[in-house]
Amino acid sequence: MAASWTSFEVCEDLVRRGDKDRYLTTLFAPADRRPALQALYAFNIEVARVRDLVSDPLPGEMRLQWWRDALTGCGHGEVGRHPVAAALIDTIDRFDLPLDPFLELVEARTFDLYDDPMPTLADLECYCRATASALMRLGIRVLGAGDCLPATAMAQQGGVAYALTGLMRAIPFHAARGQVFLPEDLLARHGADIATVLAGRETPQLLAALAELRKVAWAHLCDAGGCIPDIRREAMAALLPIALVKPYLERMDRADYRPFASNCVVPQWRRQLVLWRAARHAQRCGEARSR
C-alpha cells in the first residue's frame, strides 16, 4: 500500500511534538530514510499512549487489536484512512520489515492498560526488549544495516538501558495513574512495596531498590558500549537515543536524587548536545574504519 506524502508529514509532526529526542535523532539519518524512521516512531507513540486515551482496559484492548489487524492486513480500507498506519505499512513494505517485532511490541503494550504489577526483573527486561530494543532493531533495518550484528547487539542491550531509564524517570507519572513498573521481586528484595510507590512515599527501601535497578541499566549500557567500535555508520541514527541514558543515570546517581520530584531533568539543549557529540563520534569511528 503506497502512503501519501501527507501521511509521512503527519508522522513527522507527531514525533516532533510527542518524542522530541527521537525526532532529533532522525535528523542524523539520510534524508530519504527519515520519513520511514519517523513512521516507526509515530507508531510507537500511537500504541504507547493508548492507555491515556481510554477510560478502561477494554477500549484499549480494542485499539491495540486494530493495530494488529492493520499490521496483518485485516484492517481493509480503515488503514488507508489512518495516516500513521498508512505510512507504517508503506515503510514495512518498502524495507521488507518483519511483522513479528511490531506484533510483539503491541502485545507488550497490553501490559500498560492494566494496573497489574510487573512480577520480576526478568519480565521487565523482556518488556524493554519488546519495546525500545525492537524499535531500534527495526530502525537499523530501515537504515540498511540490518546485517550488522554489532549494531543489532547494541540495540538489544542499549534499548533495555534506554527503556529502564525512561521508566525510572516516569515513576511519578505512572504512580499518579495507579501503575508501577518496578518489579515486585526487586522491591521485595529491599523491603519496599508497590503501595509505597503508589503513595509517592520516598523511603530508604525504595531508594535502595532504585539503586539496584540503575545498576542493571548501567550494566546494559556498558554492554551496548562495547559494540560501538564495530557498528556500521549507517546504523548510527537508530542507535543515537542510547547516548541519552548516561546523563540521566548520572543524575539519578546523585545524592540529591528524589524519585518523585522533578530534579532528574536533562535540559533540552544538553540532550541536543549529547546527541550531536554521539553522532560526531560515530562518524569519526566510521571514517577511521574506512581508512
UniProtKB/TrEMBL annotation:
Signal peptide (UniProt feature, chain positions): none
**Coiled-coil zones:** none
Q: Check the record and name the InterPro entries matching this protein.
A: Isoprenoid_synthase_dom_sf (IPR008949), Squ/phyt_synthse (IPR002060)
Q: Which GO terms describe its molecular function?
A: transferase activity, transferring alkyl or aryl (other than methyl) groups
Q: What is this protein called?
A: Phytoene synthase
